[in-house]
Amino acid sequence: MQVAKPAGPGAAARKYDILSALMAYALAADRLVQRRVLRIMALITARYNWSRDELCVGQREIARLWSVEERTVKREMATLRSMGWLVQKRRGARGHLSVYGLDLDRILEDTRGCWPNVGPDFVERMDPAQIAPEETNVVPLRAGPAPVATGSVWGAVQARLHAEDPVTYGAWFHALTEVELAAGRLVLAAPSAFHASYVRTHLATRLLAAARRADPSIAELRIEE
């Protein structure tokens, strides 16, 4: 999904929609995730330059905004970059601050599962093609339990996905089970046709990337019902 930058007519409403998606995502998560999302929302509302698509603010100022120490800012900004929500556009050097941008595609993809919590009108406004046809297709959203270490490739993939995004892991990845790993192909089974279809459509790229980091020989991913 390619997201137009919130500029021009309707930009204000689009910005509120992005914040609403983040809010719903945070409220479905644990306290650690809630605090992290609140912090990036504070940066967006207080310091993000939408016309230039950039955030350029020093760690000391961020620390004051967040009421934390600068070392906490450094750690949280690194986490937000690893999640893909913040993208470093220019690295700070010689007295100049680092410049960041928002990856709205990644933010909205990560929060998509929580859109129904805002309401069907919000889902339709954000992505009319993805309205669940039946109420039974709505997946309960909560941070999934940490996967048990098994020493397998799929176990390593699960651990990485949980560390990156425990809410999306709990909603979509936790229920997947390994069927086969052979000849560079990883086959997983989903608990329902809707679940399999959603993962294929919206999460397959992220899932395959995580699998390749665990085992570079994996070239193909298949999700079965």
TrEMBL record:
InterPro entries: DnaA_N_dom, DnaA_N_sf, WH_DNA-bd_sf. Residues 152-212 form the DnaA N-terminal domain. It holds the Pfam family DnaA_N. Coiled coil: none annotated. This is DnaA N-terminal domain-containing protein.
